[in-house]
Amino acid sequence: MTDTPQHSPRPLRVLAAMSGGVDSAVAAARAAEAGHDVTGVHLALSADPQSFRTGARGCCTIEDSRDARRAADVIGIPFYVWDLADRFREDVVEDFVAEYEAGRTPNPCLRCNEKIKFAALLDKALALGFDAVCTGHYAKIVEHADGGRELHRASDAAKDQSYVLGVLDEKQLAHALFPLGDTVTTKDEIRAEAERRGLTVARKPDSHDICFIADGDTQGFLARRLGTAEGEIVDEAGNRLGTHEGAYGFTIGQRKGLRIGTPAADGKPRYVLDISPVNNTVTVGPAEALDVSALTAIRPRWCGTAPAGPGTYTAQLRAHGGETEVTAEAGAGELTVTFAEPVRGVAPGQAIVLYDGTRVVGSATIASTTRATTGV
């Protein structure tokens, strides 16, 4: 059995998700150049889009829609705008708010890939007779001789986005195209390619932070949605150190913005160790108290067949984080993971993505952790 990068032997009817940025525009152009019958679509995800972005923040604006349309015109493909604002609000935005309210730290990009781009969008594409959805993600699909597919890291490790695609299952992978993942291409080279193709988005800034919080003020966004509720900041012994205006405004491992008036006895910085929405309390302590030796994750999703029995993998815990060696075993609706060496800053609500070499095995949502120093 041979493994090769994804190259379809026949032209496909492809729906290219075009955000209005350079990556998705070049991906659509490459798909069309490969001989596929490509149609571009921009997803209107905001019920009240702004006329213009704020620098590199935000997306899904009127400006982005126009940029995507201009790119489709240059490529020479049909273009449509699909309104998925209600679905996005329910599956991504409301989920984001609910997770923070429950004291967890969600990743909305994973949820969007799972619920919008490769669920709502893909379902509609297949119903309309399309064979695949194409996006500008940097990841690679490897196809076996028997037709089975695997998701792998992009050839350019610096641009790899396989972490946020770890929620895709076998069916979704069968209908996905990632034209940017097969070649070792820097962002500057992608921009240069866009210029050669006459795409005006060649120098458009990348979108950063959370797309539906255009000003980048996550705490302000949550405060507007959840209101303020004064609570206590305490140390591990329960001693009151300060107050806050809402536990949802903190994340595990946070150091800045704690506003603690009393310095620690050892003079060292303190970090958020625990967030309790039940009593609206934030617990802080020393950095070493953040060390985690194991975790339990729920809602596992496998990029293929679920692994049988315990196995040794590497794990990635955040979109731009490194890998760490783990032993993991899938159970009934959950995943238990033990780290070879303790790791820090692991928060419930985050995704853990397992890798076997460059292959994405699957992902799950962290539910609880075991501290290395206390065993709880």
Instruction: Find the CATH superfamily of the largest domain.
Output: HUPs
Reported CATH architecture of the largest domain: 3-Layer(aba) Sandwich
- Measured by DSSP, the beta-strand proportion falls in 25-35%
Number of domains: 3
| DSSP summary, beta strand count | 18
> What is the CATH class of the largest domain?
Alpha Beta
Taking strands numbered 1, 2, ... along the chain, how are they ordered across the largest sheet?
13-16-15-14-17-18
Q: Please write the string of helix (H) and strand (E) elements.
A: EEHEHEHHEEEHEHHEEEEEEEEEE
Structural Rg? 22 Å
Q: What is the first-to-last residue Cα distance?
A: 45 Å
Task: Work out the helicity level.
Answer: 10-25%
CATH topology of the largest domain: Rossmann fold
Q: Any idea what the shape is?
A: globular
Oligomer: single chain
- Which residues sit in consecutive blocks of at least 5 with pLDDT less than 50? 1-5
Backbone structural class: alpha/beta
Mean pLDDT: 89
Main sheet properties: 6 strands, antiparallel, barrel
What's the number of helices? 7
Domain tRNA-specific 2-thiouridylase MnmA-like central: 220-285
GO molecular function, one term: tRNA-uridine 2-sulfurtransferase activity
Protein name: tRNA-specific 2-thiouridylase MnmA
EC number: 2.8.1.13
